[in-house]
Amino acid sequence: MTIIASLLRDAQLPQSPTAQLDAELLLASALGKNRSYLRTWPERIVGSEAAEAFAGYLERRRAGEPVAYILGQQGFWSLDLEVAPHTLIPRPETELLVETALALVPQHTAKVLDLGTGSGAIALALARERAGWQVTAVDRVEQAVALAERNRQRLGLGNVFVRASHWFEAVAGERFELIVSNPPYIASGDPHLAAGDVRFEPESALVSGEDGLDDIRLIIAQAPRHLLPGGWLMLEHGYDQAARVRELLAQHDFEQIESRLDLGGHERITLGRTLC
After folding, report:
1. What SS3 class is residue 163?
2. Rounded distance, CA 236 to CA 79, Å?
3. Average pLDDT over residues 196-216
4. pLDDT at 256 over 60
5. Where are the beta strands (DSSP E) in the chain?
6. What is the largest CA-CA distance in the chain?
7. Residue 105 and residue 178 in contact, taking contact as beta carbons nearer than 8 Å
8. What is the pTM of this model?
9. How confident is residue 202, by pLDDT bands cut at 50, 70 and 90?
10. Three-state SS at 250
11. DSSP 8-state assignment for residue 198
12. How far apart are CA 196 and CA 64, in angstroms?
């Protein structure tokens, strides 16, 4: 017989920087419980079926597969989202985009566009906080569109509309008070693509040309014709790309341009406003 405490103690995840957390999440899932259960009942016996499931999870994690993909879910903002290998895993730093959008667009009604929505994380978080907003979420990947729609339905958010679109293609002629995006922004030769959890994420959602800015250039160039006067464009980008993104926004006549720091102290998002 095996108890919870010994399973956690013996779990070996040497390559993970969050080994204890990973083990707890995986065991809780195998047991069908939450993490607090593990701490409340460390001497509880784990059945053979759950122990086998946990062992399988550990094997996958040792091979480098992200916990979010193993469990098929990830927390973001105040939401629990379904995730899958054809979309990026929502990350805490992206919550800065949500926080900034809510602060800069305080009105109760607004039309919002989320470009490259993936799992729907940004669009759904905004819609949860602003019931009067009409949020359009687009992605060119068919499986991502289906995934975002499943998350929308499960969360019961009727103010989100998920569409298939390569950037602005499906919203021709539409204008918005706010456009947000966490686009691909990694350079094609970046060595980080061969390390860590990123190895398991879709390259199409990560890589954007030789300098990582191809998609950001396109979005910035096309966004003005889809923004209402006074509308905001907000972009997540790499930790060392903020200055270049500010330059691109200025070249396309955006104003009130600034970058915001994430919790790690990196310039993680940049925004600008069109006033005409």
Report:
1. strand
2. 20
3. 82
4. yes
5. 2-3, 45-46, 73-76, 79-82, 110-115, 133-139, 160-164, 176-181, 227-236, 255-261, 267-274
6. 70
7. yes
8. 0.91
9. confident
10. helix
11. G
12. 7
> In 105-213, which ranges are continuous DSSP H helix?
121-129, 142-155
- One-letter amino acid at 111 equals K
User: 107-136: b or e for each residue (b if 16 or more CB lie within 10 Å)?
Assistant: eeebbbbbbbbbbbbbbbbbbbebeebbbb
Average pLDDT over residues 143-149: 97
Give residue 220's identity as a one-letter amino acid code. Answer: I
Cα dihedral: 235, 223, 147, 52 (round 10)? -20
What is the model's pLDDT at position 127? 98
pLDDT: which is higher, 197 or 58? 58
Question: How far is the C-alpha of 14 from the C-alpha of 248, rounded, in Å?
Answer: 42
**pLDDT-based confidence at 1, cuts 50/70/90?**
low
Q: What is the pLDDT of residue 194?
A: 66
Nearest to 87 by CA among 42, 117, 67: 117
Percent of the chain past pLDDT 70, that is, above it, reads: 98
The candidate with the shortest Cα–Cα distance to 67, out of 194, 192, 197, 195, is 197
Does residue 125 carry a pLDDT above 90? yes
Q: How many CB atoms lie within 10 A of CB 245?
A: 25
Domains by residue range for the chain, with CATH: 2-64 (1.10.8.10), 84-274 (3.40.50.150)
| d(C-alpha 44, C-alpha 46), whole Å | 6
Strand partners, 113: 136, 179
The single residue listed with the structure tokens 């809510």 is 102
Taking residue 229's Cβ as centre, other Cβ atoms within 10 Å add up to: 10
The reported pLDDT for the residue numbered 225 is 96
